Amino acid sequence: MQKITPCLWFDTEAEEAARFYTSVFPNSRILDIGYYGEAGPREAGMVLAVDFELDGQKFVALNGGPEFTFDEAVSFQVYCEDQAETDRYWAALSEGGEESACGWLKDKFGLAWQIVPTRLRELLADPDPERAQRAMAAMLTMRKIQIDEVERAAAQV
Fold this sequence. Notes:
Elements: E1 7-10, H1 14-24, E2 29-35, E3 47-54, E4 57-63, E5 75-80, H2 83-94, E6 98-99, E7 104-106, E8 112-117, H3 118-124, H4 129-139, H5 147-155
Parallel strand pairs: 1-4, 5-8
Antiparallel strand pairs: 2-3, 3-4, 6-7, 7-8
């Protein structure tokens, strides 16, 4: 059993969110759906919690009520091998949500994600501090990360 499992609090969208996330990430699946019983505190038969996996990482989606909502204090980073993968996750997760800066977005449920090309991490850690700073400056102007633009900026002299 996984020792630490993120639990995502929703009002009533736990099953919809879990199905959406499992459709976005490969090697993902719904594991179990539990329902409220007569003891409540929500309507009997309503989805209580959904256990699901995203590419092997277990999560729980909980229909806990409207008291709590997501903010950017917690986000999930998605590391992408190339621009095509970056574009695919960006498009899927931002649809109906909100794009932000530097590879950050909120999905249609309000959950924050960082779509991070692995090449960006390499450029930001370049042993030449000037190259790394140029890469950082380029990234700071972007919403979705464009790897070729960050590489061109880093290479400028």
